[in-house]
Amino acid sequence: MALKTDFRHFLDEAGNVVELTKQAKTIFKFLSKIVSAVSENIEQPMIDVDLNCNTRAEQLSCGGSIEGKCSAIDMIEWHCDTCEASGTISNWQGSLWDKQARILH
After folding, report:
1. Tally: H helices and E strands in the chain
2. Are 28 and 10 in contact (CB under 8 A)?
């Protein structure tokens, strides 16, 4: 089952993280690491994120690694290289975790 996430659901109007439950904090930490890694290497076809699959929830035993990429529609797609875990992250652009190089014109 894919986890479809709108990154704005974790942020207030100013872009700061809203108050989260322990479980939501774990998920946000997982997703924000994916956003940072993929956006920093946005031109790469696939990024090996320095993140294990089991870091998205305490009870998971999968030790697979997370890979991600940015699609043509600026959606980040991620998946585990071992199990069926996968998902998408939308509306991450411009957040504090967006590491794309900025070009001044």
Report:
1. 1, 5
2. yes
